[in-house]
């Protein structure tokens, strides 16, 4: 198993290609579409960088995976589906997220909330294979109720549950989020062998340090600034409640969620051939 990372500076997002070099097969995890909020234009520069690597390595990509319905970038699931025939994969509980945001965006009763916008929904313990690489789903709710981590050998792709130890953990103030659930999920991660490699979905480079994307269970337990091995559940829940009340909403939450709960597809074009996103007023919380 080999892992190649790609960093999208605009959203501080890590995308990964995990592949079997001998079989020339792999998966893409958490791909990004470029979105300019000023012009509402979508581009594929970030996804094209990943695709250039896939093409150079002559890899088949049978699956493209999201850890969760991201609130800070538009997913490029559909880009890889169209380019490589990749099946889109996410957690089996995504319908709970779709249902909550169907209300936020007033999408109507005919908007499906059973995850059918994705090709494959995986639940705890489910597995897919690419070549000799076996990818196992691990349900890690908290940031969102459907959040999944993906275990591949001694590596775990943790999505937004954890950041590098000097930055901490995910926020939990989105619809369906839960500090208690996130604490419990992180305890499951901390119960893995200390040498387990943890791959981040974001790195915000606190203090201006160089970008980092890989840590270990041992390092997180020893030095995560928000939840180390000694932090109690009550302490963490109190901290997250206070901290999240200070956080502004992510800059791209409104456009990204509408696309991401659709499996990376834009809303159906209207009679003029143009797709439109909704901006609900005075609905989302957040400081600032």
- What's the average pLDDT? 97
The gross shape turns out to be globular
Top-tier CATH class: Alpha Beta
What's the CATH topology name?
A: Metallo-beta-lactamase, Chain A
Main β-sheet: number of strands, strand sense, barrel status? 6 strands, mixed
Description:
The structure is a single chain. The protein has 288 residues and is of the alpha/beta class. It has one domain: Ribonuclease Z/Hydroxyacylglutathione hydrolase-like (Metallo-beta-lactamase, Chain A, 4-Layer Sandwich), CATH 3.60.15. Helices cover 24% and strands 24% of the residues. The chain is built from seven helices and 15 strands. The strands form three sheets. The protein has a six-stranded mixed β-sheet with strand order 1-2-3-6-8-9, covered by helices on one side. A six-stranded mixed β-sheet has the order 10-11-12-13-14-15. A hairpin with a 4-residue loop joins strand 1 and strand 2. Helix 4 packs across helix 6. The radius of gyration is 18 Å and the shape is globular.
């Amino acid at each position: 198993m080999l892992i190649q990372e790609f960093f999208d500076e605009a959203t501080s997002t890590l995308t990964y290609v995990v592949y079997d070099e001998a079989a020339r097969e792999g998966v893409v995890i958490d791909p990004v579409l470029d979105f300019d909020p000023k012009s509402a234009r979508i581009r594929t520069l970030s996804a094209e960088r990943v695709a250039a690597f896939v093409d150079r390595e002559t890899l088949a990509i049978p699956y493209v995976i999201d850890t969760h319905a991201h609130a800070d970038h538009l997913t490029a699931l559909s880009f890889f589906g169209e380019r490589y025939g990749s099946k889109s994969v996410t957690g089996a509980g995504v319908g709970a997220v779709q249902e909550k945001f169907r209300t936020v965006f007033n999408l109507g009763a005919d908007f499906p909330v059973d995850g059918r916008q994705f090709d494959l929904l995986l639940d705890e313990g489910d597995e897919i294979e690419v070549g000799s690489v076996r990818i196992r789903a691990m349900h890690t709710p908290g940031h969102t109720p459907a959040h999944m981590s993906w275990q591949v050998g001694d590596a775990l792709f943790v999505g937004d549950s954890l950041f590098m130890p000097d930055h901490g953990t995910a926020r939990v103030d989105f619809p369906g989020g839960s500090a208690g659930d996130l604490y419990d999920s992180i305890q499951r991660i901390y119960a893995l062998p200390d040498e387990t490699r943890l791959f981040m979905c974001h790195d915000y480079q606190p203090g201006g340090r160089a970008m980092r994307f890989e840590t270990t269970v041992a390092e997180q337990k020893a030095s995560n600034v928000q939840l180390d091995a000694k932090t109690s559940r009550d302490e963490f829940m109190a901290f997250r409640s206070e901290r999240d009340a200070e956080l502004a909403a992510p800059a791209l939450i409104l456009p990204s969620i509408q696309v991401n709960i659709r499996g990376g597809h834009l809303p159906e074009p209207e009679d003029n051939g143009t797709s439109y996103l909704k901006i609900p007023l005075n609905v989302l919380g957040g400081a600032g």
